[in-house]
Structure prediction request, 228 residues.
Amino acid sequence: MEEPIQPLLRPSLTDLPRGPHGLARELVAGSQRQRLIHAIIMVVAGKGYIATTVADVTGRAGVSRKTFYEHFADKEECFAAAARTGRELMIKRLEASFSRSASRSLDPIATLRASIRVFLTLIAEEPEFARAFFLETAAAGGRAQEEQVACRVWFADSARAWHARAGLPGRTPVPGAVYLAAADAAHEAVHRCLRQGRSAEIPDLEDTVLYVYLALLGMPEAAAGLRG
Prediction:
C-alpha cells in the first residue's frame, strides 16, 4: 500500500504564541517564511499572479507588511521562492516513489506507469499548488518561470534514465530532444485539465501519459497495447 501523500508547502508551525514566548528567532523567522510561501501559492491559485498583491499575501499569512519585506524584496521574489520550494519538494517526493517502484522489481513499463500514477495523484491532491505552479509561472516570468523549465528538464532526464535502464525488446534510440518533448506533452495534458477546472480528473490521464512516453521513446508496440 502506498504511503499517504502529505501536503506540499503546508507550514509546520502556524500558531506562534502571542507576547514573550522564548522561541528562537530562527524558528520564528522560519515559520513566517513558510506561511508567506504557502500564502502566496494559495492566493495566486485563487486570483492569479497578476491580480495578487503583497497585501493579499500578508493578510493570508497573518503577518505584517514589514515582516514580508524582511523576507522578500517583492511579490516576484516571494512567488519564485514558493515555486522553487514546491518544485524541490515535489521532485523529492517523486524520487522517493520512483526508487520504491524500482526496488519492487517491476517490469520497466509497470515501473513507468507507477511513477506516472504518483505524479498525477500528487497534482490532483495539490490543486492550489498545481494551478499556481503549472499555470501562473508564465505570468510571473523570470525566476518563477525558470523553476517550471527546471521541472520539465528533470522529467526529461528521468525519462532518459528510465529509457536507458529499460532494455525492452524493440526499443529504438531516439534523439535527445524527444525526452523533453515527452515531458512537454505530459505537462500540457495536465495543464489542460487545470485550465478547465478539472483537477480531480488528472489521475485519469495515466494511460494517455504512459502512451505518450512509450510512443515517443521508440516503443510503439508497447504503446499500441494500451489502445481501446
In short: The domain at 76-224 is CATH 1.10.357 (Tetracycline Repressor; domain 2). The mean pLDDT is 84.
